[in-house]
Design goal:
Helix 12 links the parallel strand 17 and strand 18. Strands 2, 5, 7, 8, 9, 10, 17 and 18 form an eight-stranded mixed sheet that branches. Strands 13-12-11-14-15-16 form a six-stranded parallel sheet, with helices on both faces. Strands 1-4-3-6 form a four-stranded antiparallel sheet, covered by helices on one side. It is globular, with a radius of gyration of 22 Å. By secondary structure, it is of the alpha/beta class. The protein has two domains: 218 residues, Quinone Oxidoreductase, Chain A, domain 1; 148 residues, Rossmann fold, CATH 3.40.50. 28% of the residues lie in helices and 24% in strands. Helix 5 crosses helix 6. Bound molecules: NADP nicotinamide-adenine-dinucleotide phosphate (NAP). NADP nicotinamide-adenine-dinucleotide phosphate binds next to helix 3, helix 5, helix 6 and strand 12.
């Protein structure tokens, strides 16, 4: 009963219609809270409540929806009777989730209890679907449009592990006609992170902005973790931006990185990181000034060793750097914060550029494995955790 009462107080709704939850009732502990820009704080911290803002169009409205919740620390539960969400500000859009996909952050936040301001919480950060409702300021989208979006963990309504999610219009992109919903569901996290890392934080020119002639000699970029889903996008974007990619993968995914355009692929099997660094330096000498680490911990240190010891250089650590890591004076650590996409509207340009590249087919989507139903999210996250995806992206079909 306590869990039911909690869900009702968090999601609002009719007291006579308690949500149906499958899950183990445990203690409820708030997870860490993280500050957001004042501009967005109001709309993002708000939980689902009835809204006074009129939506422009309302299709047949349902009273309840389903969601895969984190009901308590380390505990998932399927709620099948939570209230249909509300539009709280005029810039918001309700998307009917057709497909969402799974990312390491989805299980890490549950396992290590972060990025969930309270329980029950709804995870999931990338979605493709159809526009269900639009707020009165929304001009770019109409009901029925096919779209994708990258969402933010500060708003329970924005979690994509539910049948409907609510997001601000600047975070929504039209689904290119050549992509289906499953492909669109892969763009909001890995693809967008690769795009912003390269074009925003490493300050590489976007393909549409760069002169058509290639730089000579080529500027190298190291992508450690070239077969990760994020790495696959990063290789392709870097290529389109005229960089010469050195990717580190295992032997079994070497061909994948080559096919995507890596000029040099260094396989990591049976090698120490120092041996890999020596191979990188044999290619670049002391000229490598950009690196993206998509694996973490020890590989971050190795990227630092591979970077030039004398030239101004930047490392973008997408996973994490070892505690107490010594950063050489000539190296800048790029602050990768994907919340910037949500809280700074100007960053939409990076999503538009990636949409253009996947839309015209010059950047391809990773191989996709599809699971069916919100019930499969938890199992999918376990598959991701086992790390046996070999570059495939896990998509969960919700509708
Ligand atoms: N900061 C952010 O906003 C952000 C955004 C996106 C992702 N990330 C982080 O980036 C990481 C990757 O995410 P993802 O979804 O792209 O991952 P993923 O596709 O699930 O990555 C799995 C792949 O990692 C590769 N790998 C494992 N150990 C490696 C090593 N020592 N060297 C090279 N490759 C290795 C394996 O490929 P091989 O078998 O080929 O080696 C494996 O197939 C995660 O830690 C994630 O949390 C962070």
């Amino acid at each position: 009963m306590a869990l039911r009462r909690l869900l009702l107080s968090c999601f609002g709704g009719d007291n006579n219609k308690a949500p149906v939850v499958v899950g183990i009732e445990k203690e409820f502990e708030p997870s860490e809270s993280i500050s957001v820009s004042p501009k967005y704080e109001k709309s993002y911290i708000r939980s689902q409540s009835s809204s006074s803002i009129e939506s422009v169009q309302i299709s047949k409205r349902r009273s309840t929806t389903r969601a895969l919740c984190v009901v308590a620390k380390h505990t998932y539960g399927l709620a099948s009777d939570i209230p249909y969400p509300s539009i709280d500000t005029p810039d918001e859009i309700i998307i009917r989730t057709v497909a969402t996909s799974l990312n390491p952050i989805d299980y890490k936040s549950v396992d290590y209890n972060f990025c969930m301001p309270s329980f029950p919480w709804i995870g999931g950060r990338e979605v493709a679907g159809t526009v269900e409702e639009v707020g009165s300021n929304v001009t770019e989208f109409k009901v029925g449009d096919h779209v994708w979006a990258s969402t933010y963990y500060r708003d329970r309504r924005a979690g994509t592990f539910q049948e409907f999610c609510v997001v601000p219009q600047h975070t929504v992109l039209p689904l290119p006609t050549r992509l289906d919903f499953n492909a669109g569901a892969c763009l909001g996290v890995a693809a967008l992170t690769a795009a912003m890392t390269l074009w925003k934080w490493l300050a590489v020119e976007m393909p549409s902005a760069r002169p058509k002639t290639a730089a000579t000699p080529p500027r190298h970029i190291l992508i450690w973790g070239g077969s990760t889903v994020t790495g696959q996008f990063a290789i392709q974007f870097a290529n389109r931006s005229g960089l010469s990619v050195i990717a580190v993968t295992s032997a079994k995914t070497r061909c994948l990185a080559e096919r995507l355009g890596a000029a040099n692929v260094i396989t990591r099997d049976h090698k120490t990181n120092d041996e890999i660094v020596a191979e990188i330096r044999a290619i670049t000498g002391d000229d490598l000034t950009m690196a993206i680490d998509i694996v973490g911990n020890t590989t971050g240190s190795s990227c630092l060793q591979a970077l030039s010891a004398t030239k101004a250089s930047t490392l973008a650590p997408l996973a994490f750097l070892k505690d107490g890591e010594q950063i050489p004076e000539n190296v800048t650590i790029a602050p990768i914060e994907m919340k910037r996409f949500i809280i700074e509207e100007g960053n939409r340009k990076y999503a538009e550029e990636l949409n253009r590249l996947v839309g015209d087919g010059s950047v391809s989507i990773p191989e996709i494995e599809v699971l069916h139903g919100l019930e499969m999210v938890q199992e999918g996250l376990e598959m991701l955790k086992r790390g046996d995806m070999n570059g495939r992206k896990l998509v969960v079909r919700v509708a």
